[in-house]
Design a protein that fits this description.
alpha/beta, 2,3-Dihydroxybiphenyl 1,2-Dioxygenase, domain 1, four-stranded mixed beta sheet, 8 strands, 37% strand
Length: 128
């Protein structure tokens, strides 16, 4: 099984379009004002916005960046305001936090091998 796409709700898809283009996502469907879909620059997954009223605090989306600090610097220069600067976390990821125009929490991060293989990973169990 592979994750294909994540969709978040946003009242203003024009604002979302600008924000996610600045993050580096490439549009593949533009059905504004109701729906837009982007492809992520790496990995082949997609990300979409559906027009509707935002719900506070319900969605967090993680985008992995190979060079987090450089990516954050580039986005700050493009006018993106971050809620937190890149910082090393106790779970061995480096993260920076930003909120999109609808208030969805977006975490840009780098985890390397710790993303799927942290030191505390649960051992594989036999099939049941």
């Amino acid at each position: 099984m592979r994750l294909n796409q994540v969709t978040v709700t946003m009242p203003d898809l024009d604002a979302g379009w600008v924000f996610y283009r600045k993050l580096g996502l490439e549009p593949i469907v533009d059905a504004r004002p109701h729906y837009v879909r982007f492809v992520c620059p790496d990995g082949g997954s997609s990300f979409s916005l559906h027009q509707g009223e935002a719900t506070a605090g319900g969605t967090t989306v993680y985008f992995e960046c190979d060079d987090l600090d450089l990516t954050v610097s580039r986005l700050i220069e493009a006018g993106i305001l971050f809620a937190s600067s890149p910082a090393d976390k106790s779970w061995l990821w480096r993260e920076a936090e930003v909120f999109d125009p609808a208030g969805n929490r977006i975490v840009l991060y780098f985890a390397g091998t710790n993303r799927l293989d942290p030191p505390w990973r649960v051992p594989a169990s036999p099939a049941q």
